[in-house]
Fold this sequence. Notes:
By secondary structure, the chain is α+β, with helices and mostly antiparallel strands. It has a single domain (9-116), classed as Roll (Endonuclease I-creI). The protein contains 5 helices and 4 strands, in the order H-E-E-H-E-H-E-H-H. The radius of gyration is 15 Å and the shape is globular.
Amino acid sequence: MMEKLKLEPHYIVGFVDGEGTFNLVKYPKNRIRPQFLVFNTNKEILESIKNTLDLQSPILEVVRMKDLIKRRKRMYRLQVRSKEDIEKVIEFFDKYLPKIKKADYGIFRKYFDLWNKGNSGRRI
Length: 124
């Protein structure tokens, strides 16, 4: 069995600055939750990020016909929504702050604090 690869923190920061997103998802009844996504055609690199951050979140195939026709490659996303995994993402990026997506991370982090206190139904 192959050993799972762990990545250097600054590599992950650079990768997420280019291929990731910190966002808020609106659900019915105006509920809002934080979500962290990383996209790439290389599923193994997403597995390595997931392993390094010790996440349980899924890596899903993104199916969009125009991408398959244009690129002829499969696209994958690491999709982090659970509170436990979001906490791990926050712990990592508090220590290794993104450079390009610093403002997006700041909003994501602020909302997580509200969500964590049970205010997920409120607007920010």
